[in-house]
Amino acid sequence: xxxxxxxxxxxxxxxxxxxxxxATLLVSIMLVATGKIKDHIVDNRFLKIIESVFGTLFVTMxxxxxxxxxxxxxxxFYKNVMRDEGYLTHTLPVHTWQILVSKLIAAYxxxxxxxxxxxxxLGIAMDEPFWxxxxxxxxxxxxxxxxxxxxxxxxIGLITIIIASVVLSPFFMMSHAYxxxxxxxxxxxxxxxxxxxxxxxxxxxxxxxxxIVMTFMASDFVTVTWTDEMIPPLAVFAVINKTMLAGFIxxxxxxxxxxxAAERIFAKKLNLE
Length: 273
Known about the structure:
By secondary structure, this protein is mainly α. It has 9 helices and no strands.
């Protein structure tokens, strides 16, 4: 049944995203085309203005697709779970956790597709379609030139934490949104407003908590001298890895707790009035 829920969620949203994806792709093509034309027509002020306009528009579109996907995903959950559609959603012969997991998986699919579209459009705009593979190759070459195995391990650890944080960032965001919507669900009026206020309040409190924990973890930081190559010494990497790992683990624990709490509230305290 979970598979059917995911299918329904995707079917309800798939028509909304291709338009902005196609628009971003078109702008990236126009940007690189304008740049190539400008290279052959030197000192043309009009082409410079057009290129600048397309460049600004491209950056705007990249930001817009992220905002739109996040906004539509969140509002889809709100309308489908807490508004009139919720009467149908919660009468389906499924568990509440399946409804939340279905929407989380659908959100991941749209986030991944957005990342792919963004990477492709960025490659087109830079006239470097394989820029991501080249970046990976450059990093691998850099790692091979790093003489110390300890420095390699430290850098790999840091990159691993960063990648894990990026991969789990949709889960972090959606678990917070689900929990705040669950709190808003407890109110008989102004549910959306309460959810928004709860979201900001929760993020402020969480950031303060993470900052305190990371500050405590970094309390043994020692002053070190940078080398001529401006590569941070191993001690700095150790501190950065430890603090980032602590923050990552704390974010995972909090997000899992919020997801479970949201599921329990919707399962036991559902209020569609």
